[in-house]
Each structure stands twice: as structure tokens, then as C-alpha cells.
Amino acid sequence: MGIMIQPTKNRFGVYLVRKAVPKHLQGILNKREIKFTLDTKDVREARERAPAKIIQIDLMLRRAEELLKAEQSLTDADIELIAGVWASKIMQQDQLIRERYLVEELFDGKVGLVHSPENAIIHDWLEDRERKPRYKSQTWQEERDVSICKLMSIELDEALEYSPVVLTPAWRNRLAWRLAERRNEITNTYLLNLRPRLYAISKGLDSLPEAKTPQKTFTQLFEAYKEFKCPSDAETIDKKALAHVKDYAAAADRFVEIIGNLAIDDITADHIVKFRDTMAKYPKNLTKKEKALSLAQKLSLQNKDHLTPDRVRNMLNHLSSFFEHAIYVNWLKHNIVRDVRKPSRTARDSSDKPFTQQELARMFSGPVFTGQEEPYEAMDYWIPIILYYTGCRVEEIAQLHKRDIQQRDGVLCMKLQENETQSIKTGKTRYVPVPLHVTELGFTNFVASRSAFLFSDEALAEKKYSTNFRKRFGRYIRNNGIERDEISPTHSFRHTFVTNCRRNGVAMDIRDSITGHIDSNRNESENYGDKPVETKLEAIETIPKLNLRRIKDWGR
After folding, report:
1. Are 102 and 113 in contact (CB under 8 A)?
2. Which of 50, 158, 216, 462 could share a disulfide with 243, CB 3.0–4.6 Å?
3. Which overall architecture, per CATH, does domain 357-540 show?
4. Each residue's pLDDT tens digit, 403-439
5. Where are the beta strands (DSSP E) in 38-139?
6. Contact 221, 322 (CB under 8 A)
7. Spatial separation of the C-alpha atoms in residues 378 and 161, rounded to whole Å
């Protein structure tokens, strides 16, 4: 339980409560300290009033934490998708567009439709934003952000109703500007489509002669594919489908960059071959600045690794999915990607890739494990230690719930299982003992302090609880000089555990019962699931002990 904030006096003798805002939340709250006056000079009254204000402060900090999580989990692609869902719904409502965004105006004695005054303002602001005038102050920009959010308040509410997410002020500003762009596009398109109809009426015709249906472009095909995978009328966002679309968007973007936004009927096998061969020379891990370069400049970059044959193959498969969808909706008769040979799969190196003793020493002597908390989280401390001692998969540990830490046959264990919020690669429940060194470091106190999930309260990309941890830990070990190409930041712990078990003579079936590995060459009865937890604990205790000390009272 935390220490109660005590009221303090200001220079006028009036009591108040104050609390410092954690550094990682200062950008969200735009302040370093939260303080509330208690409106009294009497210490007794101040102590009576303080708890309510303290609760208010805690709620503000909790909300800031939620906003920070939202900010870290969203991307520009998410904003684009939300705006796209909104636009697809509005584009189908001619009457709404007419009433909301257009006004009637008299020209030469005739009534016509033009942009509303609000639309004209938005158009001018978008042009200002495109020009990015250097003489404008930061305050001016912030005031403009506030104004655009007010002007687009209805659209923002609609978009977030169609695609419910939690937005920080910064992300809400970005969404408001993107919705303003789509609003401008929708209105212009409506007016352009209106002109032929008005012209036909002026000529005494019911309509103009039907023009040839324009060919669908590649971009239109990808938009149709996105709508198919993530329907705009869905009640909730399917995070797995969203992650799928974001992954496939890379192939679509690179195709347009290399080939252009051609009509899908005009795309030939030669275009696919050019795309394949160019992607084989395309650099990976581009910086933000490098992404802005032209295609020729990207291909000429030095000291950059190229995309692997497997990645190029995957991108061709993604393209193929787009063209299969075109066949499904009767836009095409043939999938041209099928006519092009794909790169051969890279032979996978299945050899063990454990951490060296030097790498482990460097890793576990870093700031996470020596008491420097900021900006690290509890999972950054506990998960690597547990992975080292058990060889479990990172997602199995990241998704653990408080109720999963339980006694079994007198041994404290982690219950790894498959249910509505958790998944196991093999689908089989198993009990993995908690190493004694882990309990010595305060793990049981940490578990007792939690109310639900131990580490991550929500699954992020592709419904993974370990997403953010894996990114942070990858950066952490690189920052500590562990950069071997053959090292996988989290999976190498499995190889390290297996290597240690082999050195210590731990039987393969016991080792596999801990790691959850199933040998396809053994029959079902020979695989894990029936090994006593005492036996598993004995095996775990043979793993060389890490040089770690208890760094805090994890119960607080």
C-alpha cells in the first residue's frame, strides 16, 4: 500500500495536496506536478478533505497511463484505417454530404451548390499545413490543432464510433487532420460527379450517355482487399485482421513505388518480374529519413542489407492475395502473379543459438537488473530471468495471470494453458516450477501485488501480450553490446536453457516437459505432460545461477 500524501501549506497558509507526475507521463499531462487546494487553513479539515483529492489525482495518473498505452500502441496506419472506415460510410450518403458540407449559392440568376464556409476554412487550413510556413509559431500550430478538432468534432465522434479506440490528444489531432482531408476529398468528388448530371439536364436529357466503366487501379484493388479483410461496417475492430492488413500494406506500397498505380488490367507478368527483382535489391531497416528518398536513391544506399528471399517471396504471396480477390469480385479473370517464379525458400539453420556466458553477464548486469526502473517495466525485469531458468516461450510468460501462479504437489508453479485470453503453441496445459532463485528475488511478493495479469493487461499486435516487451528487450540487449546476427533476443533463451540441460545431463523428456517442446519423431505418449513437478524443479535447479540480487520490495 502506498504512502498517503500529506497536506502541505502554500505561502498564504492554505492547505493543498500535491504529487509529482512520473517522468514518462509528463508529456501526456503536460505538467510535472498535480496539485489541488483544500480551501482551508485548518489542519483537521485539510486531513478530512485530502483523501478525495488524492483519489482524483490517482485517477488522473491512471487515465494518463491508459492514454500512454494508447499512444504507444497506435500507428499512422491505424489512423489511416480509421479515417478510411469513416470515409467509406460517408461516401454512400449523398444527402448527408449535400446537407452537411454544401450550401446553395446564386450565380447569374441560377442556384448552384458550393462548399460551405466551414469547408472553405478547412481547405485553406489544409493548404497552410501543406506549405508548412516556417514563420508560424508553435503556439499558432497548437491553436490550429484545437480549432480543427472543434470543426471536425462530429466527424471525430463518428469515426471513433465506427472504430472504437482510445486516443491521446496528439493522436486525436492527427485523426482530425486526416478526417479533414477525407472530408475535403469527399466534397470535391461529390461536386465533380454532380456536374455531368447538371449538364445533361441543361441539354434536356435524363442523363448523359453511359461512359465506359473506368478500369480499376491497383490502389483501388488494395482498398477493396482491405475492406474485405476489415469491413467498415463491423461492430468491432478485429486486431488480427488489422495486423494482417498492415503487414500486406507494405507489399502494396512497394508495388506502387516500383511499378506505379496502373490499371489492374494493364499489369503484366513483366511488371511482376520487375517488382520481384527490384525487391531482391531493396534495402531493409530503412530509417525515417531514408524512407523519404526516391527509389533509385534507396537502391543505391551503401552498407545496407537487402530483403531476404523469404521476404520477397512473402511479398509476392501478398500481391497474389490481392489479385485473387480481384478474381473473387469479378474484376479480373486471371491472377498474373501465378505466372511468375518466386524466389526459393531460404534453408533454415536449425542449430542452437544460445547466449554466451559473456553475453549473459553483460545482459544481466545492465540497468534493468540493477535497480534502475525508468523507463523499464516489471516485465522487463522478470521475463528474461524466467526465460533463462525455464526456456519457456516469451508469449507463454507475458500472458500469465495472477491465478496461474499456484502450488502443485508442494511446488510453486506457473500454469501455462490455453483459454479465451491465453494461448499455448501446442495447446497442452503444463506446469513449470518457479525457480528458487526467482522466489528469492521477490517474485511471490510481486505476484501478490498484482490484481489480474502479471505483466501486460492487453494483447496488442496479432493478439500478443509480449509485443512491446520484445521490442524493448531487443533494443536493450543491442544497447548493451549484444548484436550477433544469429541471436534472437527472446528465443535464444530456449537454446541457452537446452544447452545448459545437456551439459548437466538433464534427460530430454524432462527438458521438453519444461520447455513445452514436442518432438515429431516421438509418439504422443513419449512427449511431455506426465513428468512430476518435483523432477522438473530438480532439473531447473541445475541451471547456473545468475549473479542477481533483490533490487526492490516488489510487494509495493
Report:
1. yes
2. 462
3. Orthogonal Bundle (1.10)
4. 999 999 999 999 988 765 666 665 678 899 999 999 9
5. 102-107, 110-115
6. yes
7. 34
